[in-house]
Amino acid sequence: MKKSFLFLAILLSVPIIISGQADTSTYTKIGDSAPLFICKTIDGKTIDLSKLQGKIVMINFFATWCPPCLKELPVLQKNVWDKYKNNPDFVLVILGREHSEQEVKDFVRGKGFTMPFAPDVKRGVFKLYAGQTIPRNVIIGKDGKIIYQSIGYTPKEFKELEKLLSEKLI
Question: Can you say how many angstroms the Cα of residue 54 is from the centroid of all Cα atoms in its chain?
Fold first, then answer.
């Protein structure tokens, strides 16, 4: 009887434990229309998501103080930007969460990045997609719907992102 009760208690607690670990910081899901935004990159270009239908758009959210971001950004530069920067069907924007334009400029200059960075001073764009946790990547398909999302950085997961981009940007 005690073993049966214990087994039943464990069985009933599994869904509670799993639901307690659900990601509540992400406001969008794969298949959703991407929330629209307009931002200005540190080199003065305007990115208006509503005008990018027909393109694959990758959004990366980062902060200068974030260790996983600092590991991910050089990989993003080398394996994505350097590969697709001349592809007319690809747009990348990297948003500095809670960073001013000057902070982002100083960071980019110090690291030698050539990717398109933009400030997101008050989380104006970030809060459309999530409440917390960076780095965060979102890929939007040519139809304006989200086709990929990730939180954090691992080389294995980033390879999945690279594979998806290579399939979509043939």
Answer: 19
